[in-house]
Here is the input.
Amino acid sequence: MDKRMVAAVLAFTIVTVFFFFSIFLIHPFGEPGQVRMDDRIIENTQNESASNNGVTSVVFDYRGFDTLGEATILFSAVAGVIMIFRRVKE
Here is the structure.
């Protein structure tokens, strides 16, 4: 087995384990958590962010760094997959 295949199997195994643990740790759908942020955001969106669109204000104002982090992780994942599965000239 070559190094790329071992890296691909290892990455797949890590992601699969992560997904299975995530399934068991997520709270049930429809049951709110301890924090009720949705009511606060709905009531204060226009005053705090000067935006009429609540979804836009959440994505870019309230969770801007989180969105940037998600984009960075997505880019890193795509770059990693391309590096693992690209053909090497011999």
